[in-house]
């Protein structure tokens, strides 16, 4: 055989090299076309959605806000607290609220070009609003809570610039609510101390810390998403092998997040959560549609931002949304998947997750929109690539398990606790009688009763089950 027939002349070699290079460049371009790095969306490579440094305190022009927040835990108790300590503090609390009402409306112009200061202003004002509203003595019948102009106007202004809801959010309580223990060491969950707490309890610290740990853990997931979106060519064996390996790593990350959620129980007592912490988180719609909401004085009631006045929720965690989008979980029931949604699933609030995006920084919401529009669905890739099907399904199954565990946590902390008596009753005997009455009422519960609501004001059992079932429906069938 004449082997010279297989040898290429220099011009043929040049041609082959050029074609290979062109092919590589074209596929890289295709992959990177429209690709935007995560840093464009205020996502830090090491801390993700958590800012890489603590938020700075506001400049002296805004000292009255910072001072009011420092003072609040010492003088304010929940409005329905009838304990001796609360009674003793009631005139100091009223004086604090008087001062808030009489404060001028500060101009936020000086903060406008400084995102971290705007975030700090949002945090301070949003915490002040919760302190103000929930320390007001209850009225019978309930009347709308009026948020004074001095808080409402700048909070709405700051929120418009940041693109976030004008109320306390997941960011204000979790991702921004920390100071470093040792400023010379990098950001990590062990180096973060809580900046603000409503109850001052260790339980509240633990509650925030677990969720901050989830957010920090999420940076690994963000790296997997970024790598996936940057792979130039998904047709070759090496790329598919990398995607399979990353899906396996993703499954482990989801399992670790599940462990973190489970760890809530070791440091946060459900009774303390439900009665001492949660009432501070309630938003304008916490009582459901039949209860009066809040009025932001000095703000046009048609301002679009005022549609978003629910309390903070894990549903506002950008990490969890990114995970859902990456795995293509269809919360809105827009795709034909099996098994078909149950009647209960159909009744749930399908707009919840979309609405929760408005409680995130505008830039983080933009990242989710960007992910949603990505033409590279990993689910579709796995559907057409037998080697990816199992790793993809394992990740979905881990997320389904996470949601099942989360439902148990929500049941323990909210549903079960809603059947216990309010410990803030006037006297121990009344509290005991109230507890007995609550038990009897639970036993003989009338057929039609108010649904148990999440801080987002929705029927939580329906919502959480629908989320779990939507996750399950992403599973690829053979
Ligand atoms: C004591 C601990 C917790 C309780 C009582 C709890 C309770 C709830 C409730 C009642 C909801 C319904 C929606 C609403 O807020 O109105 C919800 C939603 C949600 N929570 Fe939690 N949660 C807890 C911890 C966590 C943690 C640690 C995470 C992790 C980030 C998390 C993530 C979510 C997500 C992503 C949703 C949206 C619904 C879904 O994706 O299934 N939660 N939670």
Automatic annotation (TrEMBL):
InterPro entries to which the protein is assigned, alphabetical: Indolamine_dOase, Trp/Indoleamine_2_3_dOase-like
Binding-site positions, heme b: 406
Molecular-function annotations in GO: heme binding; indoleamine 2,3-dioxygenase activity; metal ion binding
Stored Pfam families: IDO (PF01231)
Residue ranges crossing the lipid bilayer per the database entry: none
GO cellular component, one term: cytoplasm
UniProt KW keywords: Heme, Iron, Metal-binding
GO biological process: 'de novo' NAD+ biosynthetic process from L-tryptophan; L-tryptophan catabolic process to kynurenine
Similarity comment text for this entry: Belongs to the indoleamine 2,3-dioxygenase family.
Name of the featured protein: Indoleamine 2,3-dioxygenase
